[in-house]
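Q: Focus on the chain.
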Amino acid sequence: MSAPIKYVYEFAEGSRDMAGLLGGKGAGLAEMTRLGLPVPPGFTVTTEACKVYLATGEEPDELGVEAAHALAALERAMGRTLGAPDDPLLVSVRSGARFSMPGMMETILDIGLNDRSVTGLAKASGQERFAWDSYRRLIQMFGRTVMGVDGDLFEQAIAAHKARRAVATDHELDTAELVDLTDEFKDIVRKETGEDFPQDPTDQLARAIRSVFDSWNVERARVYRHREHIPDDLGTAVNVQAMVFGNLGGDSGTGVAFTRDPATGERGIYGDYLPDAQGEDVVSGVRDALPLSELKTLDPRAYVELGDHLRTLENHYRDLCDVEFTVERGKLWILQTRVGKRTAEAAFHIAHDLREEGTITADEALTRVDGAALTRLMFPRFDTTPADVPLAHGVPASPGAAVGAVVFDSAEAVRRAAAGEHVVLVRRETTPDDLPGMIAAEAVLTSRGGKTSHAAVVARGMGKVCVCGAEALTVDPAARRFTTESGVVVHEGDTVSVDGTAGTVHLGALPLTASEVGRALETATSTDPVTDAVLGALAHADSVRRLEVRANADTPEDAARARALGAQGIGLCRTEHMFLGERRALVEAMILARDDTARETALAALLPLQREDFTGILTAMDGLPVTIRLLDPPLHEFLPDRTDLAVRLASEANPDPHDRELLRAVERMHEQNPMLGLRGVRLGLAVPGLMAMQVRAVAEAVVHRLGAGGRPHAEIMIPLVGTVAELHLARAEAERVLAEVAAETGTTLDCPIGTMIELPRAALTAGRIAEAADFFSFGTNDLTQTTWGLSRDDAEASFFPLYLEKGVFEVSPFDSIDQEGVGRLVELAVEAGRSVNPGLETGVCGEHGGDPDSIHFFHRVGLDYVSCSPFRIPAARLEAGRAAVADRAGSSDTR
């Protein structure tokens, strides 16, 4: 008989290894308690309890009893009773999912206050204003999160009181104002809900726990999980913790500290501190915090103690730690720790430093960075000069360069972005409700807050450019504008440039320059610590990865750049790109040819041009494999648009006979579904001489390179094969031409011939096809289309947004491979192909070859290489190394 499920754990009962059950926050509190840090006691309601609640609408029967026992233990530890009328124990109720979701779910502070205990708190603390400020905060938080009252109603009441007293901040309201405000808040609750604010402390606690459970499924939390690929079925834990107060006067305060700078990765203690405040004041950005270094002057003992605890935590977690703390009348309390979110720059810098310090291994350092972060570092930066005077300076919260039209609310950001416009979301401070707009925007700019504000933390996590605390800006959302200290007015729709590295905002669009990391990756030289860290990570990834990384490249220039970025060959050279531009006329001549002689003449004109193309690419990739795909798209794609031709013919008095001939050809070649029509291998078999011309061009380019002392390694790929019979026919034609060129030139040619697996039938009959193939290259773009039975262009513009919103897709199957469906076909084809041909080389040349999650999958199923666009090669190299490390560790999760 299995043991009963336990739904509540006191902090002392847990550990960091229990994050799945206790959530990240609960596991951190438990671990700090085990380390002996000054953590206010409390208990955690597990994610399992949340799952039961979300599935049934009711808490587990055992939860009430277990919570009551844990509360009693907490009361004994604190020597106070929850909500007692004389010296009340107050508690906070906070969410805590396994993976950090900053600000997405609910927090309720000061649980236990009511009309009686507020006077007891005033007497015990000796601070009447503090007690009433805490009570109004509870009603405001509880009313909004638990009872569903519109939060703006409370904010309007506060604004009216501040206006009446002619003060700028809540902090300046006196006790009498707070007492009146508390009564108004209770009236708002009564009017909006039809019930009084609950006076029973245990009822407050129970309802607060349920509201945190409910917040798992609020819209902003779902949106955040979708973006961060966090599963919807994990649920959240709930942490109930004894309140400690940073708003008890000048000897108290609250703050957030990082063991290293989360924006740059520099060593040292960084963060914000706000005297005489509660934690929400710092995170929300409604009051501008002080640099954490100011605590050294305000309370030297607390500062030294905090530094000791930060070092303890970083040494224990062996990573950047994000720590929330409160000083209550000189006593330091540690309220939370987690592995901190960081920018791409900081991620590489920190991983490199920890490796150099011997704190983590090279393999561990590789798991601390990823391809997405590396890609962000390759984005261009602003090319600024001293003449580029910024509109304002702020806190450089998340680096990068972004240009966009100013918008002042989330809905407008989403609307404009959906229409294809780049936008910059400007707010006084952001709240969790701004998440959709933050996702849609290129950058976030706020006039309040610092590196630990909501805007900064969320933007860093998403890799968005962010500048916070630009105090020189007066943001007026109602008027849809902001004004600078110098009187410049920027209206909604005006273009601004946000420099998240320098912490500046500029009017208009600044010019961009290549990133230092991007330059260094091509030259393998470094000029700064971040670039050193990137090159070091890539060097280790290259030393451990099994997968080769090749490039999709169609020109010598692209091939040369890909090689400079670390490509180990070309996995896909598309020959159709070579038939465009000035050469289109020759292709048209081939298509319009009325007899064999005319067609052979057109093909003969194309041959030297193709040969020159292949020679240049083989030169750039000398010594490395170059997989050349024979012509794939249907021929009508090389002809003018039917409608354009018809209009031109109808509008001209003397139509060009050539246009009339082209129109007849277009109409003759029209297909209802060209993607499934006369293309690929079918085209090569149906158009005499076309395949032979391309194979001859490859062969003659190889001969030319061999004669020049080169080491060409050309591979010929037959596209869209669905049956081994097609491949046998195509291979026979290719081998015939190769033999002819070899005989004509007296050269031995070794050009492997393989096929592109991009049809489900090809994957399912891969064992037969492998009999005639030297290699398989998976064209996962078309394989995805044909497996799902959809057209990418049409689907992404129509129902894909709905499918993503409804959860049919967690991510587009064109962005990351559908492992259960398309991926299973890849896996089956690899197994079947190698069972017949053990030496069969396998790779992927669709855009999935550059996607991090897909690369891990391709590693697991045993492909030999991935191929992607040149810009994505460094990230693919890094992810291939991470996949090998994860495989060695027996895990597929390197988050």
